[in-house]
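Q: I have 68 residues here and want to know how they pack in 3D. Can you give me a structure?
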Amino acid sequence: MRDWLIALRNEQKRSAAEIAKELDVSPAYYSMIERGKRQKKMDITLVAKLAQIFGVSVETIISKEDMN
């Protein structure tokens, strides 16, 4: 489970569907990313897109992933 990703999304008061649309993936697929069922080891492309969407650095995303 990527609780940090869910928390980040909730802090910004955004829905999973909104983030999925910005990532150009289905809401179901994005939900699996948040739950850690997909992209178990996030590739750099996804990390960069999430960083841009959430307005955080790539390093922030990587450090959160390393904590899992």
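Q: Anything worth noting?
A: The chain has a mean pLDDT of 95. The longest helix spans residues 44-54.
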